[in-house]
Q: What sequence folds into this?
């Protein structure tokens, strides 16, 4: 049994303050970055997120697997900053940096690469807090049953589903959302 999903591809880019305040992460503690993220200031921006987690969000640092979430571009800035600083973190036997995203950390907290995240954004939370959600409050969802048995004599049915899907937060306040959009 297989399935096919079709729809709009994930589009990366910048997110606006209005959409951030309407997002599933709107109740996360906000950290404002002064400029667009770059390799030169990524360590400062990550420190800002970490400081907010350590001071404002009770118990988040002790949650299992808590870590940083960022897109591939931001992750690349982090790798560049590590290389410029002479760090050996992520080095693979002298063959360069580990670009598959495994075992990279910041202060011992894992970094999770999320290719669908917006640019200029760093989120700190734990994996169990980010859950799959659907937009059941709109007219964009549909489930239809196709009775194939009426046409081919089998016992088969087909199911067609159309809906939007995205990320939701299980505990709305358990995280920090650092971005350039809060100003």
A:
């Amino acid at each position: 049994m297989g399935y096919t999903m079709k729809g709009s591809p994930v589009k990366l880019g910048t997110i606006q303050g209005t959409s951030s305040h309407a997002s599933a992460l709107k109740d996360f503690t906000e950290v404002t970055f002064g400029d667009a993220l770059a390799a030169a200031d990524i360590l400062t921006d990550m420190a800002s997120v970490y400081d907010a987690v350590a001071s404002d969000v009770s118990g988040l640092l002790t949650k299992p697997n808590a870590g940083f979430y960022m897109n591939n571009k931001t992750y690349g800035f982090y790798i560049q900053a590590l290389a410029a600083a002479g760090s050996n973190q992520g080095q693979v036997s002298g063959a360069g940096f580990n670009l598959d995203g495994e075992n990279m950390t910041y202060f011992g907290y894992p970094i999770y690469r999320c290719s669908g995240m917006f640019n200029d954004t760093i989120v700190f939370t734990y994996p169990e807090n980010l859950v799959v959600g659907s937009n059941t409050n709109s007219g964009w969802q549909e489930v239809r049953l196709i009775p194939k048995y009426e046409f081919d004599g089998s016992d088969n049915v087909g199911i067609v589903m159309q809906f939007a899907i995205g990320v939701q937060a299980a505990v709305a306040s358990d995280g920090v959302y650092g971005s350039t959009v809060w100003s």
